[in-house]
Fold this sequence. Notes:
Residues 512-539 form a coiled coil. The protein has 757 residues and is α+β, with helices and mostly antiparallel strands. Helix content is 41%, strand content 25%.
Amino acid sequence: MTLPDAGSAAFQTLDAAALLVALPDPVAHLGADGQVTLNRAAQARVAQYSATGDWMALFQASSVPAIRDAVQAALGGETRQVTVQVVDTAAPGLLTVAPASGGALLHLHVARDPLEVALELMDGLGLGMTVQAPDTRILLANDAAARILGMTREQLLGRDSMDPEWRAVHPDGTDFPGETHPSVQALRTLQVQREVPMGVYHPQEQDWRWLQVTAIPRRAPGATQPKQVTTVFADVTEKQAMQTEMRRRERRYRSLVRATSQIVWDAFPDGDFQPPQAEWEAFTGQTPAQYRGVGWLDAIHPDDRAHTLAEWQRAVRDGDVYSVEHRLRRADGQYVPMQVRAVPVTDERGQLGEWVGTHSDLSAIREAEQALRALNAELEGRVQQRTEDLARVTRFSTLLLTAAGEGIFGLDGRGVTTFANPAAARMLGYSVERMIGQPQHDLVHHHHEDGRPYALAECPIHQTLRDGQTRRVERDVMWHAQGHAVPVAYVVTPTHDEQGQPSGAVVMVQDITERIRAQEQLQELIEDLERSNQDLEQFAYVASHDLQEPLRTVGSYTELLARRYRGQLDPRADQYLHFMQDAVDRMRSLIQDLLGFARLSRADLTLTPVALDDLMRGVQQNVRGTLDADGSLLTWDTPDQVMGQASLLTQLLTNLVSNGLKFHRPGEAAHVQVTSRREGDMIHVQVRDNGIGIAPEYHARIFEIFQRLHRRETYAGNGMGLAICRKITEHHGGRIWLDSTPDQGSTFHLTLPAVPS
């Protein structure tokens, strides 16, 4: 059978719409009219990055020109494939653009980067993994690495092994310098550094974690220098603690054995004695040369040597416990009956490492038995004392539960109440006996506050019974025995069985009726205050607006008098007219500022992304007259974008820049510099000048309305500018403050919300 090629008529007659809709890869159809249609996979992916459904939001800006060229080619009947960079993956994607139905069909295929897969795999195994550049800067890190090291992934990225903030130690507690870290050694030697033990300080938990680190250098084919180093590390803190505890117990065991036995000895895995054996030498008088190998048999009574050697050889052959009795010659020549016992000691792999044995005098054993009986009697006394202590604790716990003001009750794994204190019973109107043994949810938690049934699966208390997680609920209701709802806040703490599985819960409940009543009263006060503020703002606006009409009349007639009679009256009359015109101008400026202040209070902000550079160009135009008049200088370095209303932000920056240009030192040209930098979710803007400065005691006062520090004859103004600046800043969710010293200039700081990244 002959297969048709992909361009045959048979394919052209097929309806592929259902396939395109069901494809797991994103597919888009661009119509000739510019309309874009997305399949389900594309809709799901685009929705993560664009609220408006913009298909191009999937791609890095560097890929957009190539995509547009391919679309134009498809609209002309040509099929193209372009490599693109997708915003949410490190691996490049392949975009196929083909002509379709008078438009273009775009199909995106994204392969997963092997490094991303490796990072996810390490996460699944609970292993930390980082990828570092040749200068040891961290390029990539998985979630497990961040968790083990006690940092976020953002904090890890860019840090290098030489960073003094790292705190690392060797197992013996000595410092672990950055230049000796496994990743650095792997880069220098091009050799894999395997399972290097390292202690690191965990900043969140404020304790030390023990790691086992493996560093693997990577280099490009044919290259002599490393390209990267991949570091994998496991948190072995618990294992380290267990090993330390095992060594401690072994030391205690050996000390205990030495304290309760006459002779303690050890031997090689093959059964030969290994010197030194200080206690053996002291008891038998043998030298190391005499007891080495099986020379120790010479210190055994001749009649006991055969069965002693046979039993020892059997134990060595089988790796089993060695136990025998024989007579051992003391250094003074007397034979002493001994109970001998030895055990094989194995390592983690089960390999025999050594034998540890003891020789005990039988009379000492009888003394030990007597001591054991005395110890048992002492232990029985301790148990009795402990029982009495537990009884006192139980009585105290009962008194504590009874006296507690909060309701406390316990549940078993089924949600049945196992205990309840009197406060819980009083709060809910039941007796303690009535609550115990009843399903807690059915009894007091069966409905929501609005009367809807409370499904058991939605209940936070029963969710804790299932997953063992502590939960805090700030507002809920429980139902009183008389049928009314009691507003409560509660904390659910799980209990666990020996295997660590959830076995029940303890619930601490607080009646928040008074708290809710206080919150409602507070809300009423806030609403009253807001109405009062609105009334005051409306009054200021109306008063300022209504004052303008008589002021215009006074100003007009004053101007007519000045034009008609200037020079016809005496000089003092001309001076009075000048004073009147100046007062009218100041009053008009003051009313305009007051109107602007009132309008600002009533305005509804519309926040959109605004480039600070664009705002500064507008500010420069606003103060152009001042700059050209006296040679003042305005510079800025503001690469950031903020969320705000452009007109208000322009007014804000213009006021601050104008202040800096106005209040300059006599005989010196003003220089105002504006900078910005991102700090978390906010943009920090600084407006710095070389002016006369402001004394510290006036730093807060200058932001209040109608506050002036200088006479109008020296510096013009109404004392409204900085008050307006503060209101604009606070309306945008930021704050404004000042650093200044007299004769050393001023720096105004303000924060504005950054455009979400």
